[in-house]
Design brief:
By secondary structure, this protein is of the alpha+beta class. It contains 12 helices and 10 strands.
Length: 378
């Protein structure tokens, strides 16, 4: 199999990396992350104009990419720049709409790709513990549609989103795969309360509460009670995006650490000349290459059969969680005390790497999932 990027992907990566280097310096990123919005509307518009959002969607949806390697190329560049704009939500919500939506609902994809609508997935709940099928939020039929009650947590850019793809249980027990449905919920819908808060690694997240929130019949996305497979596909693309983002962050941390080793002197010598530090850095480089292989494998499997796809994604997320934490720890230690200071971008890369492990399932969760999926094969 040929893993070399196409000319279009190379051009996209070059233009995106150049844009981030020129327009998204660390001080700019830090200011954006600490702003009340948690992202820049101007940068978001420019991402749309550059085709960055469109690269995450297939031609049938109005984009020009949508494959696993398209997602990986974009998010690796975003990881290098610690970008906080809401592209992860666009990937997952967009995939759900693309996979399950009717023609009217799919028309929303043009607004997402164009940057005029910010969409995000609202699925995680306080007691879900990463389990995809555990949904307590309820949706009941009404005379002219649906009524939602419940809550969602850690919704990316929830207070800034225009549209939510919300999972709710329409039948079955709290952890049944069957009985989960998806709904399109505009942000201004009566009965929706949003509590905004800053994320520890930049940007913002929100808690959503639905109190007898009334929706029309046309809010149902796909077939009632059959949304588990759609959720799995949408979140799978989110897992790939996070893994690629982590890879970009690891590369940036590696570059900064190498530069420090080549310039910092102690006892009149460059610390990079110390054999013990050379060995630690060599081990780190090998681990990062292992992470890259895992991301490539996941990207190649994104459109494969379910078990192959999900095992590759869980393998990548497990690897990224383990290696990301290692890169964060080693990079800080190789920098010495300065590695812990907020003024140095490295500390922010380290924090992001640690937090990526806890998004959409940590390494323990994905190791168990990988083993369970393997039993399905046999």
């Amino acid at each position: 199999m040929n893993f070399e990027h196409s000319e279009d992907r190379r051009m996209l990566a070059d233009s995106l990396n150049r844009f981030i280097a020129e327009q998204y310096a660390f001080d700019t990123r830090d200011r954006i992350a600490k702003s009340p919005e948690g992202f820049s509307a101007d940068i978001w518009r420019q991402f749309a104009e550059l085709g960055v959002i469109g690269a995450l969607f297939g031609e049938a949806d109005g984009g020009f990419g949508g494959g696993g390697f398209d997602i990986a190329v974009v998010f690796e560049a975003l990881g290098r720049g610690l970008v906080v704009e809401p592209l992860l939500g666009a990937v997952m919500a967009g995939e759900a709409i693309s996979a399950a939506g009717n023609e009217t609902q799919k028309a929303l994809l043009a607004e997402i790709i164009g940057g005029t609508t910010i969409a995000t997935l609202a699925h995680d709940e306080a007691g879900s513990h990463y389990e995809l099928a555990r949904v307590e939020t309820r949706a009941a039929r009404s005379a002219d549609g649906w009524v939602l009650d419940g809550a969602k947590v850690v919704v990316q850019q929830g207070a800034q989103a225009d549209l939510f793809v919300v999972s709710a249980r329409t039948a079955g027990a709290v952890d049944d795969e069957a009985g989960i449905s998806l709904f399109l919920v505009p942000a201004k819908t009566a009965g929706l309360a949003v509590r905004d808060c800053p994320a520890i690694d930049g940007g913002r997240v929100a808690e959503l509460r639905f109190d007898k929130l009334a929706l029309g019949a046309d809010a149902l996305l796909g077939t009632e009670g059959q949304a588990h497979a759609t959720l799995e596909r949408a979140i799978g693309r989110g897992v790939l995006a996070l893994c690629a983002e982590a890879l970009g962050a690891m590369e940036a941390a590696k570059t900064e650490t190498l530069e420090y080793l080549r310039t910092r002197k102690q006892f009149g010598m460059l610390i990079g000349s110390f054999q013990a530090l050379q060995h630690r850095m060599a081990d780190l480089l090998l681990e990062i290459e292992q992470a890259r292989s895992a991301v490539i494998n996941a990207a190649a499997a994104i459109d494969a059969d379910r078990v192959t796809r999900e095992r590759a994604l869980s393998a990548a997320k497990f690897s990224i969680g383990r290696i990301g934490s290692l890169v964060a720890e080693e990079s800080i230690q190789l920098h010495g005390g300065i590695g812990m200071t907020w003024e140095l971008p490295l500390a922010h890369y380290a924090k992001r790497l640690v937090m990526i492990d806890h998004q959409l399932g940590d390494e323990d969760h994905h190791l168990q999932r990988y083993i369970a999926l393997g039993k399905e094969v046999h």
